[in-house]
Amino acid sequence: MEKRTSGIHHITAIVGNPQENVDFYAGVLGLRLVKKTVNFDDPGTYHLYFGNEEGSPGTIMTFFPWPGAYSGRTGAGQVGVTSFVVPENSLDFWETRLTTFNISFEKTERFGEKYLTFDDPHGLHLELVSRSEGKNSEWSFGGVSADVAIKGFGGAVLLSGAPHKTMNLLSDVMGMEKVGEEGEYVRFRTSSDLGNIIDVKTTAQPRGMMGTGTVHHIAWRASDYEDHEQWRNHVGNNGYEVTPIIDRQYFNAVYFRESGGILFEIATDPPGFARDEPKDVMGKNLLLPPWLEPEREKIEAVLLPAEARVLKEDQA
């Protein structure tokens, strides 16, 4: 059976204080906080989802905020850099915005594309790249209007403990097309117009250590539930140990660790984030799955306040 993923569904990372997390991704980067819920496996921890106006697959960055947790170390077995794509000719706006918020950045180039590279407040490595492909976001927030807003993922840089095995997985199992080599990077592409460019670093890296400022896992898209079942069978038939299908409320998920140590997930596009609250109020209230609703009072008592707010730099 031949399968081809259309690209990234979401990327999940570990960070620190939840309000700092929301202030950066909503307040500075202008993403929409589309869902405020908890880690179903650890209900005393938020699970915060950011994306475009709907939280469409290919735009969703999610976080487990662990206040006071130890810092991680980015390295082999992780996503090294998360790329966001912005509209063409908008990098000047983003240079100015990062400067306004005193965020240090560097200008880099890879495969003929210019990037702004910087870290979030908890050390997560990010970059912005401008491209024409991909639907513009319709979301505006603070000082970020829709015409310059982040569209979604540009892609990711993978740091593997076994780069050639990881690359074989991307091409032979995940169905990505190898489209270039440059220096220490090999580039792969999927069929989608967002979350579609994956660069694998081929040089050896020290082993990463999970903690704040690191990516927990990267998830790939399955178009529907039938496609998801096929993906689970396909990955398992290629020798990987895959979890049972898990209901994550807003998508179904399976997980497996690839040979280079990176935790991969495959997630369904449906049902999406409007399944349990109206689209126009998504992200404002704490949403719990039915089995955790009886514990709401206890859960709310341990969670720190966190809400999307316009920052003072945008209140002029």
TrEMBL record:
| Cross-referenced SUPFAM superfamilies | Glyoxalase/Bleomycin resistance protein/Dihydroxybiphenyl dioxygenase
Q: So where does this one cross the membrane?
A: none
Checking InterPro entries in the record gives: Extradiol_RC_dioxygenase, Glyas_Bleomycin-R_OHBP_Dase, Glyas_Fos-R_dOase_dom, VOC_core
Where the record annotates domain VOC, the positions are: 7-131, 152-269
Pfam family membership, one? Glyoxalase
What is the protein name for this chain? Answer: Glyoxalase family protein
Q: Which organism is it from?
A: Fictibacillus solisalsi
